[in-house]
């Protein structure tokens, strides 16, 4: 955004500078073609020519060069006529407000011109009587005309020069701002260039690091485009599939691995690869997708899991064997427990029958001890049977009454 604003500011400054330069050029052309100097010179020259004509008339009539006098009169009359007829001079006289003086001067000259155009004798005779009395009063009008026109023209020229100076000053200011903006623009672009160069160097370094990682990775790394055509194939992939990099570039990845595209989302999936010699490969695949603008890059990371599968199979076999051994042991203990309980129950039953037949108290005591020992042994056998039921997850608990006194007595006796 800042660079856009700066560019827009520079564009506006350039446009403003161009407009001001065009206006300045127009004003300079006006200055080059200005008629102010010509107007001032013409008005001043008219006064000079008037004074020259009066000077020529001031000599003795016999000594006056009539041809020179007529020429001076014609020049003066022509000069005043130009002030009245030429648009530039007529406009200058109008701005000065001296049209009446020009008309009076022309009227006076129109009155004496027939005398100048007449015979030499008549002209010599009329100089003192007709010409000088008419021309001498014109000096005031001519002086006022000259002063007013020169002053008005000078004021216009001064205003024009001030306006031109203002334009040139505006051009200078805008040009200064433009130079500052261009300097700032150059500085910003220099900083952007340094930043872009730094980013490019970092990207190149990152690219080298990634290239090293991909090249030295023990896992196969395959990079494809949006159409799943292979664009990169590292050394581990070449070794895994038994194919050279040049032979697989541009081929579709599906020609190397079979997998469900719809199911191959995030996470790890088991796929079947195809070696160059035709045998199948048990592989574990992880896929990453990077969308770059309108394009897309897919990265497949593949790992050979055949050895791991063999280890898992061996572990399953070992587990099954261990479970079979435990189950056989449990069955053996259960069978032996039942087999041991059967004769023991017979012994305890015979002891009970002997207790009923014998009346000797000493023999009854021995029978008690024998019966208690048999009960203890039967309890141990039941415990072993309970253990087998626990391992087989078939134990069913059943609450039974307990005689604490008899239990303590049996512990003491045995």
For the secondary structure, the number of strands is: 6
Rg over CA atoms: 66 Å
Helix-strand pattern: HHHHHHHEEHHEEEEHHH
The number of helical elements comes to 12
Structure summarized in a few sentences:
With 414 residues, the protein is an alpha+beta fold.
Please give the structural blueprint.
Elements: H1 2-32, H2 36-57, H3 66-85, H4 87-96, H5 99-117, H6 120-135, H7 138-216, E1 220-224, E2 230-233, H8 235-241, H9 245-248, E3 257-258, E4 268-274, E5 280-292, E6 295-304, H10 306-357, H11 361-391, H12 404-413
Antiparallel strand pairs: 1-2, 1-6, 3-4, 4-5, 5-6
Structural notes for this entry:
The structure is a single chain. With 414 residues, this protein is α+β, with helices and mostly antiparallel strands. Helix content is 73%, strand content 10%. It is built from twelve helices and six strands. The chain has helices at 2-32, 36-57, 66-85, 87-96, 99-117, 120-135, 138-216, 235-241, 245-248, 306-357, 361-391, 404-413, and strands spanning 220-224, 230-233, 257-258, 268-274, 280-292, 295-304. A six-stranded antiparallel β-sheet has the order 2-1-6-5-4-3. Strand 5 and strand 6 form a beta hairpin. Helix 10 runs antiparallel to helix 11. The chain is rod-shaped and about 210 Å long. The protein starts with a helix and ends with a helix.
């Amino acid at each position: 955004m800042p660079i856009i604003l700066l560019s827009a500011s520079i564009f506006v400054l350039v446009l403003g500078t161009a407009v001001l330069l065009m206006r300045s050029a127009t004003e300079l052309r006006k200055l080059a073609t200005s008629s102010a100097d010509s107007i001032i010179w013409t008005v001043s020259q008219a006064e000079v020519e008037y004074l020259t004509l009066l000077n020529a008339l001031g000599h003795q009539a016999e000594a006056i060069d009539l041809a020179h006098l007529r020429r001076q009169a014609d020049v003066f009359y022509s000069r005043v006529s130009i002030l009245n007829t030429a648009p530039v001079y007529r406009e200058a006289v109008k701005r000065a407000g001296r049209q009446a003086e020009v008309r009076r001067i022309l009227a006076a000259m129109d009155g004496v011109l027939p005398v100048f155009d007449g015979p030499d004798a008549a002209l010599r005779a009329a100089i003192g009587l007709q010409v000088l009395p008419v021309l001498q009063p014109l000096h005031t009008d001519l002086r006022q005309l000259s002063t007013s026109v020169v002053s008005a023209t000078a004021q216009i020229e001064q205003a024009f020069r001030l306006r031109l100076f203002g334009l040139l000053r505006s051009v200078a200011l805008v040009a200064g701002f433009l130079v500052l903006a261009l300097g700032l623009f150059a500085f910003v672009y220099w900083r952007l260039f340094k930043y872009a160069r730094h980013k490019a160097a970092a990207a190149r370094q990152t690219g080298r690091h990634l290239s090293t990682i991909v090249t030295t990775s023990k896992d196969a790394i395959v990079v494809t485009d949006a159409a799943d055509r292979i664009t990169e194939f590292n050394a581990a992939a070449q070794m895994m599939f038994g194919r050279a990099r040049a032979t697989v570039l541009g081929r579709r990845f599906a020609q190397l691995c079979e997998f469900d595209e719809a199911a191959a989302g995030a996470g790890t999936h088991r796929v079947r690869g195809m070696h160059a010699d035709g045998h199948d490969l048990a592989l574990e695949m992880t896929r990453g997708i990077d969308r770059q603008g309108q394009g897309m890059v897919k990265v497949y990371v593949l790992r050979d899991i055949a050895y791991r599968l063999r280890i898992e199979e061996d572990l399953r076999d070992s587990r099954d064997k261990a479970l079979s051994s435990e189950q056989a042991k449990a069955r053996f203990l259960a069978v032996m427990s039942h087999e041991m309980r059967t004769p023991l129950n017979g012994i305890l039953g015979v002891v009970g029958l002997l207790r009923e037949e014998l009346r000797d108290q000493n023999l009854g005591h021995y029978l008690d001890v024998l019966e208690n020992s048999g009960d203890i042994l039967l309890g141990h056998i039941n415990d072993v049977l309970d253990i087998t039921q626990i391992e087989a997850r078939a134990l069913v608990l059943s609450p039974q009454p307990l005689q604490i006194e008899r239990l303590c007595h049996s512990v003491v006796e045995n």
